[in-house]
Amino acid sequence: MTGTRVHGIDALWPDCLAVAHARRSGDARQAAHDAALVYAEGQGWQLASRAGQGWDDEACQVFELLKPLLDRPPGGDSWVLGQLGQSLNGCIATHGGDANFVNGPEVLTHLHRLRALSDAVIVGAGTAALDNPQLTTRRVPGPNPVRVLLDPGLGLATTLKALSDGQAPTLLACDATRAAQAARRVGADQVLGVEGLVDAQGAIAMAPLVAALHARGLSVLFVEGGGVTVSRFLSQSCLDRLHLSVAPVVIGGGRPGLQLPLHASMRDCPRPPARIFSLGQDMLWDLDLSAARR
Ligand SMILES: NC(=O)c1ccc[n+]([C@@H]2O[C@H](COP(=O)([O-])OP(=O)(O)OC[C@H]3O[C@@H](n4cnc5c(N)ncnc54)[C@H](OP(=O)(O)O)[C@@H]3O)[C@@H](O)[C@H]2O)c1
């Protein structure tokens, strides 16, 4: 008697990359189909099931987590996923800005998978300045996304890794009125001047940024932090999904995660459809915000 052959994430991941590659290339969904994933009209991508073969728990969980992203159609509208890794008391870093590491290795690997499947990864100026992140896919095989540093004030140092290491394309996003100034600092090819990013009062609008990236062919966007930036996307109804990874740690007086406008009553507080995933010691809340997306 032969037992069931069980496949793991190593058998699934190359097909996830192939699906994302096909979407970016504009290929028909079926073109990316091979052994691990099959496309079913009306259901999107599914794990292939074959007689005598199965998938282990990790592969099933990773697939479920990634499915909303994998199902994005070629040439589709922008789709924006935000993430924050936070403590039990809602902080994403210490008061001084230390965020290494709020979450365990399983969540970090998940973030790198999201980078590999996204067209662009976006961080705010605070994260860029304090973390000096590479925003690459070091933990998993797969392409690096375009790196977008949102810096309306043009205060970021030009020596930051993302602006100088050449590992992947980087765009410094600022208002179109400051694009020439930004180009003198980092070179025109690294500047995304966004019409209407900053209004007369200095408020920052995320929809024009999403539209400007879409115009460059970057439609699946991953907003990786920090709290101010993800909160702006959320409060302006510019997120389709949000991954909140809660770690069993308490950060006294830390930097806040979500910072949103006041609600007077519980009745008015959004309670989006949610799924929960256990990643090591952390709990990831996957929130579906598509109903509120504009
Ligand atoms: N746990 C996680 O998942 C995670 C993810 C990413 C980042 N982080 C941590 O989050 C913190 C940063 O998040 P955040 O919410 O403060 O900011 P952020 O969303 O990354 O960036 C926007 C904020 O940065 C400010 N800013 C602008 N230029 C700056 C500069 N040169 N240096 C410092 N701040 C600048 C902006 O102020 P103005 O609007 O006034 O210009 C704005 O308040 C860091 O400590 C980072 O380590 C944690």
Automatic annotation (TrEMBL):
Residues of the Bacterial bifunctional deaminase-reductase C-terminal domain: 79-256
The name this protein goes by in its record: RibD family protein
Gene3D superfamilies xrefs: Dihydrofolate Reductase, subunit A
Biological or metabolic pathway of the protein: Cofactor biosynthesis; riboflavin biosynthesis
The keyword Oxidoreductase appears for this protein: yes
Entry superkingdom: Bacteria
InterPro entries recorded: DHFR-like_dom_sf, RibDG_C, Riboflavin_Biosynth_HTPR
